[in-house]
Amino acid sequence: MEHATILSGFGGQGLLFAGQVLAHAAMLEDRHVSWLPSYGPEMRGGTASCTVIVSDLPIGSPVVDVADVVIALNPPSLARFERLLRPGGLLVVNDSLIEAEPSRRDIEVLRIPCSALAREVGDERAISIIALGGAVGRGQLVDPESVRRSLTEGAKGGEAAVSRNLRAFTLGLERAAAVSV
Amino acid sequence: MTATIPAAPSRPRLMKGNEAMADAAIEAGCDAYFGYPITPQAELLERMARRMPELGRVFVQAESEIGAINMGLGAAATGAKVLVSTSSPGMSLMAEAMSYMAGSELPILLINVMRGGPGLGSIGPSQSDYFQATKGHGHGDYRVPVLAPASIAEAVALVADGFEIAARYRTPVILLADGIMGQAMEPVVPEYRTPIWDTKGWELTGAAGRAPRVVRSLHLFPEELERHNIQLQAKYAAIAERETRWAGEELDDAEIVIVAYGTAARVARTAIERARAGGLRAGLFRPISLWPFPSRALAAVAANARAMVVVELSAGQMVEDVRLAVDRTPVFFHGRTGGMVPTPREVVDRLRIAWALTGARA
Hints:
The structure holds 2 protein chains of 2 kinds. By secondary structure, chain A is α/β, with parallel strands linked by helices. Chain A has a single domain (2-178), classed as 3-Layer(aba) Sandwich (Pyruvate-ferredoxin Oxidoreductase, domain 3), CATH 3.40.920.10. Chain A has 6 helices and 6 strands; from the N terminus they run βαβββαββαααα. Chain A has helices at 15-28, 75-81, 114-121, 127-139, 144-153, 158-178; strands spanning 2-10, 32-37, 47-55, 67-72, 85-94, 108-112. A 6-stranded mixed sheet of chain A has the order 2-3-1-4-5-6, sandwiched between helices. Chain B has 2 domains: 13-206 and 216-242, Thiamin diphosphate (ThDP)-binding fold, Pyr/PP domains (Rossmann fold), CATH 3.40.50; 248-357, Rossmann fold, CATH 3.40.50. In chain B, 41% of the residues lie in helices and 18% in strands. Chain B has a 7-stranded mixed sheet, with helices on both faces. The longest helix of chain B has 21 residues, at 222-242. Chain A binds chain B through residues 20, 23-24, 27, 30-37, 39-41, 58-63, 65, and chain B through 5, 7-8, 10, 12, 14, 39-40, 122-124, 179-180, 183-187, 263, 266-273, 339, 341, 343-345.
């Protein structure tokens, strides 16, 4: 089974990090994985994205033309990546910044107020980890425990950062469980 | 020789291609690194900047790519194990020194993480330096072995192989990657090896107590220069005989064979999966050494195929070597340029076209 996730939003929202956390978690499960950042002429405050593929078999193209999960943290990301979702795929939307309704009717949509929850956690950059929690809770990409291990093992910034990220991840997971789609 | 992409490793580390190649060079005993920052290979230089001084080895960020490669030339003449890395526009600046090193028979490993061209182009991934890498960068009758990884784990292995080939044949070696191989992260089991590095007494170390040695590319007498060229050509023939590498995937029953290297080979793998799910039996022939090109092996594979489809991140460069290698099998091409990457869907479409336009193999 192969799963492609696109994480997209503003540069500085921590989504490259969240993608690495997902990739690392899948690696801890002994699965094949690739992580590819957009590295085009992006600027501060512009859009950035990364693609994470998790598979039981060696991975082909690290660039995808069909995604199973799209995490969109700002309006331009929604506009750009929604169309890549396969029918039945999962779209995680940052409800705090995106007012528009997704145009697709053949996908599952999970709206999470990621920015508001991140302020609750006390770190603006937790936005992406919250959204990742939503995706993992709903999309069965990896075991949530693998993500917690990844957040703990791969930590930069000390214990405070680890506990903030763990809390952010749990908030996202809870939203995925609580919100009816 | 064939190789396959390694299975999911047991105790892997998630590594970015550029950093993994830098670490591989360090673990291979790289003595000196020279470079100049350019996207999409900058993290390679950054990692060397941090780690080489810690190890008491040489790191120089030169004033330009021309400076970097000529510093590399000088260091290589002392027998040092030298790495230089750059991306496409920088590679063009290094062309003159490549010719001088080929003429002087100096071993060096040069990594080109290709980006879109021509000119300053874009920073997106590309394979449009195939002609440059395989047909010649500078002037004169010379060849340079070119190795092309299709995964980060393979890039790590090819760094050590590249150093070894460089020393064994006293030649520059190019490791030809692209922006995706440089920027992506994949699991790598850090199993490094130390390449055999024997300079056999040609290196310049100071002539105190012994006869002076000469390392140069200048031979003013035509008779002498021709003798030198004949010897170089014999060396290239030996490399072509011994150092040809390729890998095959799902070739046994393949009716249509994709020929692709590096990132294009990865896209091809996804396309092959989808094509097979739709009943079209496709397989992959993946050159790992671009020079020497695995022509003989490709010809044998082509003899059993209904059609070949070459996929590149270029307007069509390797496809010329494929056409030279295969006899009567029709050769189709699909490529994207400028930093764009072919999608699996596009490749499957091309496979279907190739199928429709050709007959079954008798």
